[in-house]
Specification:
The protein is mainly beta. It folds into 2 domains: about 80 residues, Elongation Factor Tu (Ef-tu), domain 3 (Beta Barrel); about 90 residues, Elongation Factor Tu (Ef-tu), domain 3 (Beta Barrel). About 15% of the residues lie in helices and about 40% in strands. It is built from 4 helices and 12 strands. β9 and β10 form a beta hairpin.
Length: about 200
């Protein structure tokens, strides 16, 4: 489990294809300090399993992406040199600074518009009908692994407001209209829908 509080921006150093599996080599000086084989690290909000920690440079790790991950997320478009948001799994007893994030991406969205203010930016993203029912104003949503509060929502879009820290320390600081991002809606909303299905007729 994650919190959506990005620990650092890393970089994908290499992308290798092996049959249907894609292997990323990722640099992340902070997240590799205690990474072990089998640990979970969220890469742009996607929970991936470390297969080779502490690579050749001492601050890299490798992860494998299967077809399901490539189909559901924007990671299929990642190339060497791409910056990514990184977060280690939250330890038991750790602070839940954002919200409950599984790292199980529900789909992708496109950045439609970006409205800069003096120190903050407002970003508007597309929203598919199958995910729109889980998104509410002032609720939580995860965009490329970043826990954000929904500032506004319509039938097919949602808006978030980014504080200076988010702009400076995550990849959302330089996303441009047309860019694709990973979306994870609030898992609590999905469970509530499932559990009440039998009572809603």
């Amino acid at each position: 489990m994650f919190t959506g509080i990005v620990e650092e921006m890393g970089e994908v150093l290499a992308v290798q294809e092996s049959a249907e599996v894609v292997v990323f080599t990722v640099r992340g000086a902070l997240v590799t300090t205690d990474a072990g084989h089998g640990d979970s690290i969220a890469v742009n909000g996607v929970c991936l399993t470390v297969i080779d920690p502490d690579g050749a440079t001492g601050d890299t790790f490798r992860v494998e992406l299967v077809p399901e991950t490539l189909t559901r997320s924007s990671l299929s478009a990642v190339t060497a040199g791409t910056p990514v948001n990184l977060e280690r799994a939250v330890p038991v007893g750790g602070r839940l600074g954002g919200h409950i994030v599984q790292g199980h991406v529900d789909g992708v969205a496109t950045l439609i518009s970006r409205t800069p203010a003096e120190r903050s930016d407002e970003l508007r993203f597309s929203l598919t009908p199958d995910l729109a029912r889980y998104v509410v104003e002032k609720g939580s949503i995860t965009v490329d692994g970043v826990s954000l509060t929904v500032a506004g929502v319509s039938a097919d879009t949602f808006t978030v407001a980014l504080i200076p820290t988010t702009l400076a320390h995550t990849t959302l600081g330089f996303r441009r209209p047309g860019d694709t991002v990973n979306i994870e809606v609030d898992v609590v909303a999905k469970y509530v829908e499932r559990l009440t299905a039998g009572y809603r007729g």
